[in-house]
């Protein structure tokens, strides 16, 4: 129970009008998950249907982080959007695999690959998995 954890750092970039690249650094746990949720909800509120979560600098994630990812997935699906994870750290990938989240929320190695996958999944922005 170290109190010396690095605080959560969240950086948001806009690679295109309908997508936000959210880079998360630090521990994603019960103490920090709400902050991430506020950032993600804000992006959806401002019309970004696709959330790209860069988790490469997240060394630890507990069930609170999983819940935020799944909540974001559900919220983006309601606006015909998506969540994609970018290069989850090995320990985080293990958690995603064990919980089955990696079956629902796809991962890519880079943000460019995620944007490419979005373009292939919905050419013209409208042919994704339907209502």
Summarize the structure.
The chain is an alpha/beta fold.
Walk me through this protein's architecture:
One of its GO terms (molecular function) is anti-sigma factor antagonist activity. InterPro entries: Anti-sigma_ant, STAS_dom, STAS_dom_sf. Belongs to the anti-sigma-factor antagonist family. 40% of the residues lie in helices and 23% in strands. With 131 residues, it is α/β, with parallel strands linked by helices. The chain is built from 5 helices and 5 strands, in the order ββαβαβααβα. The chain has helices at residues 33-45, 63-77, 90-99, 101-104, 111-121; strands at residues 9-16, 19-25, 50-57, 82-86, 107-108. Mean pLDDT is 90; it is low at 125-131. It has a single domain (9-111), classed as STAS domain (Transcription Regulator spoIIAA), CATH 3.30.750.24.
């Amino acid at each position: 129970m170290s109190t010396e954890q690095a605080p959560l750092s969240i950086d948001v970039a806009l690679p295109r009008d309908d997508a936000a690249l959210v880079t998360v650094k630090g521990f994603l746990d019960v103490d920090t998950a709400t902050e991430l949720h506020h950032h993600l909800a804000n992006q959806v509120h401002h019309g970004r249907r696709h959330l790209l979560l860069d988790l490469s600098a997240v060394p630890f994630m507990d069930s609170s982080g999983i819940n935020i990812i799944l909540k974001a997935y559900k919220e983006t699906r309601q606006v015909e959007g998506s969540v994609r994870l970018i290069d989850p750290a090995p320990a985080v990938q293990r958690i995603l695999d064990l919980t089955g989240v990696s079956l629902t929320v796809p991962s890519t190695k880079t943000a460019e690959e995620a944007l490419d996958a979005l373009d292939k999944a919905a050419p013209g922005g409208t042919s994704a998995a339907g209502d």
